[in-house]
Structure formats: structure tokens, C-alpha cells
Amino acid sequence: MSLGLCVMGCGSFASIFAQTVKTLRGEIDLYFASRDLSRAQEYSGRFNGIDAFGSYGSAAADSRIDAIYICTPHHLHLELASLAARWGKHILVEKPIAGMLEDARAITAQAKKAGVNLMVAENYRFLSVVQKAKELVDDGTLGRLRLIQVQEQYPFEPSGWRNQAELNGGGVFIDGGIHKASVLAYLAGRPDQVYAVAVEPGRQGLEAEDGIVLMTRSAQGVVGVINHSWSAGLVTARPWVSIAGTRATIYFELGMPWLKIVDGSSEEVIELADDHRGLVPMVREFHQSISEARDPSMTGEQGIEDLALVLKAYESMRLGVPVSLD
Fold this sequence. Notes:
Largest sheet: 9 strands, mixed
Shape: globular
CATH topology of the largest domain: Dihydrodipicolinate Reductase, domain 2
CATH class of the largest domain: Alpha Beta
Number of helices: 10
Strand content: 25-35%
CATH superfamily of the largest domain: Dihydrodipicolinate Reductase, domain 2
Helix content: 25-40%
């Protein structure tokens, strides 16, 4: 059965999402909503949409729509999730689930009360290479985990709401870095302590950090390191992840179709499905969780945990000391 999914917010990432998801025609029927009707109509025409709406309220009230995908600035997530819950629509919300924990908890509570599925659109969790890494970690291929490292430096200049700390909730770490925090927690276990420092700014006029180095420790003793910056340089290789255990180490680049296992002097490369963003399996999981009346594999509660890790990193950055995660 096809899922009527309305994209709320017609910005740059919404176009990437729609370009990918339009290939699922027959599984997903796309609709578009914006406060600018002409923009919603343009997106609907470009991405094989069924219809377009000039207000979020009219979209939520439409009986053809089963679910909404919230792809707006972070500070609007609670407002639109509340709207969806009132109309009994399932909710797929972009990461972070919200900019504040109070809003995030309100979103999960309202979805639960309305009896609708709530899934955080953490597409990195659904990358084929991340799923393979999770399998290798869980089956003991690496032995006891010791260290996970995640690194990305990418030339990006935030503008509009992304450079307004009050609307974005911070800078690089809450925006793109939360992907890395989620991957780290998924693969190596939820940290219980975090220490973070800001990197010297690469651009002038920014309201929040454009680079951060983070060190974490889990209850099992696994150390994590995240180095994530909006760089002023050229585009470099894809973000990379290294996970070291007592038996072997794995290395991969996020979005690339391979994973390397290194054990002493031997090396094995595993070829995987070519899945650049993880959006198709993510949307299919959202659809299936609704069809099967079960929780999705990336729940609102997990989104809250990812947000809490980010906010604790900011607390550590402000205080200049390690902080514990409750």
C-alpha cells in the first residue's frame, strides 16, 4: 500500500530528499507544503508530486496524506510535529529532533498520545556501510572495542537560519555533527562522559562554532573521538570512521560502498551496495514500521539521546571540562 507523504519545508535538503524518494513511486506518494505556494508547486512539478499546499495546516488536514516529513529549521519542529499529531499523521522529522530537550520530549509525548509513529530521519544509520559495520561489531569480529574515530572537514558556509544560533541551536555540531554523534553511539555504545573544545573559527561573522573536537567514553570503556569542521578549504575525501578492537580494526568512508577489515598484516575489503545517503532504506523502514504497527528503528527516544549528547558537548565546550551524561 502506498504511503502519502508530505514534505513540509521546501529548502535545499528537501530537494535532495525528494530527488531520491521520487524513485519509490508506487511505494511513496509525495506531496509538498510550504508557506510559499509557488515554491511547493515548483517542487511538486519537479519531483513528480501528487499535489502542493500553500500552508502546513491545509496539508495536515488533507485525507490523502498519511504522514509528514518535517524538513524545516530546527526551531519549527515542535510546531509542525504538534500539527501532525493533532491530525493523526505519522511523523518523520529531520535531525536533530529539536533544538532543545524540552521540545524533543514534547514531540515524543504528543506522537505517543496521538498513536502515530515518530521516526527521526537519521539517514546515516541506514547507510549500507554503517549497517555492515554494526554487524561486524555485534558478531565479535573486532573483539572487545577500544576506540572509534569519526572525522569530517567540509567546505560549507552557513547562511540564513543556519547561522542564527537561536534558530539552529548551535553551529556545526548540532547541524551536521549530530550525524557523527549518532553513528558513534550506534556502533560503539552510548557515551557516559564527553569533553569538547571548539576549533579556531575558519570564517568571520559566525554566531556559533564551525569546528569541534569531541572525546567521549562509554560505560564499557570505549573511547570515541569526533573531529568535525566546516572547512574553508577544498572538498576532501568522504567523512571517515575507524573502529579498533582487540582483534581487528575496520575502516570506511560514510556513503561509500566498501568497508576494510585490517587484522595484523592481513586486509580484507568488503564491497557493499552503492548507497550514497541512506535515504531509500530510511524511508522504507518508516513506511514498513507504519504498515506493521511497530516502532521504527530510529525512534524519538533515540533522537533525544543524540540531541542530549550534542547539548552535553556544548556544555563541556562552555565550561572547559568533561561532563557526564545522565
